[in-house]
Amino acid sequence: MGAPQPMEPTMTTVESRVPTESKRTKSATTAKSEKHKATEKRSSKHTVARKLESSDDLHAARVTKHDRILAMLNHRDGVSIPEIMEATSWQQHSVRGFLAGTIKKKLGLALTSSKTAGNLRRYRIDTKRGR
């Protein structure tokens, strides 16, 4: 029998997962920043001005469903739920939720409704006059 030979140290699972410094080439943050710098382009004043003009045109032409509903509610005669459903392609429960949640609670507007005999209920935003 010979002398016992020394065993190589064994690595635990945690040690085997952690890469050593010699295996790492670049940290993740430096690799990202170098990639970002490489893809950056210098923009001239003319290019920036053109971007601003086109974005202004987009914002000026954009009319949201909320804007449409608010405009309809501001009419003197008001608007019915089926009319809002047609204008927005929403379902009835979504229209009711918008009126209660957004118009009344979030925006704090005074929403009034009226119903005449044989007609649908009409909603409108009650504006205070004389103030």
Give structural attributes:
131 residues; mainly alpha; Arc Repressor Mutant, subunit A; 6 helices; 3 strands; rod-shaped
**Average pLDDT, all residues:** 76
Structural class: mainly alpha
* Gyration radius, in Å: 33 Å
Distance between the termini: 108 Å
Strand percent estimate: 5-15%
The count of helical stretches stands at: 6
According to CATH, what is the topology of the domain at 65-125?
A: Arc Repressor Mutant, subunit A
- Principal-axes shape call: rod-shaped
Named at the architecture level, the CATH assignment of the domain at 65-125 is Orthogonal Bundle
Name the helicity range: 40-55%
Sequence stretches where pLDDT stays below 50 over 5 or more residues: none
Q: Strand tally, please?
A: 3
Q: Name the strands of the widest sheet in spatial order.
A: 1-3-2
- How do the SSEs run, as a string of H and E? HHHHEHHEE
For this structure, what is the CATH class of the domain at 65-125?
A: Mainly Alpha
- Biggest sheet architecture: 3 strands, antiparallel
